[in-house]
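Marked as duplicate of an earlier ticket. Keeping the data here for the record.
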Amino acid sequence: MSAVLLQSFLPGIPVRRGKVRDVYDFGDRLLFVASDRISAFDYVLPSGIPSKGEVLTRLSQFWFRRLSVRNHFLTADVTSLPLPSGTDIPSLTGRSMVVLRTSVIPVECVVRGYLAGSGWKEYQQSGTVCGIQLPAGLQESSRLPAPIFTPADKAESGHDENITFEQMSDKIGADLACRLREISLQVYAEGCAHAATKGILIADTKFEFGLLDNDIVLIDEVMTPDSSRFWPADQYAPGRSQASYDKQFVRDWLEQTGWDKNSPPPPLPDDVVQHTSARYIEAYEQLTGATFHPADAGGRAT
């Protein structure tokens, strides 16, 4: 499926559209559908990435089944829902998850194990990341002495903004903030331990959580190329930017075009689209050990 509107596949069902996912409301359950849309610098690009939605969905399912914390994933079988007549089930297969509805906590829970991205930019200016003082003399992509929790304010529209832990505590309460920090660091550690056995470094990642019956529940996507920086371990060297399995390739191309980031973005050339698709698939296969087959070519979600 290309990066098309998905609402037509579920006529009459309320839908909320994100940059990548469309979320359909079935009461106590939701249907998450990941499109092939790709965003960068707060814009949805006019070019889709083939198989991207399936990769994000299947990799999230892999982690949800593997991790030790409670999560919202129920099943990949969309027919478990009371779908309206005329639903295009084949187009939903492989890129959809049926999940529990939770009360979303409006904070992005970011964990960083290496110094990159906005963290590296802040460190160069002040020696801190989200207000956390770090040792002097670190380089771009340096491994941190220990992973750090650096939350971000979850914006309804536009870009999420980094905030301090104290600001997070003021927003949602100190007890909940402490619990989220502990769980986020735990999930990151579990993910890094597995990824290391597959030759991948998870430089940083972001999690989202919800509340259900007063329990904290891991939601949305988990440690995918959209929400994380994945670096090949055998190519890692601090002091420079790293080769990656994520959408950094797209960001780098956009930076080189002279695009002002304030107007509609240019379409991606075919080689950038195909390279990005291949990197997403490679990340999935390396982390899961499974061969990726698109659902429309007879593949099944793992």
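See parent ticket for discussion. The mean pLDDT is 91.
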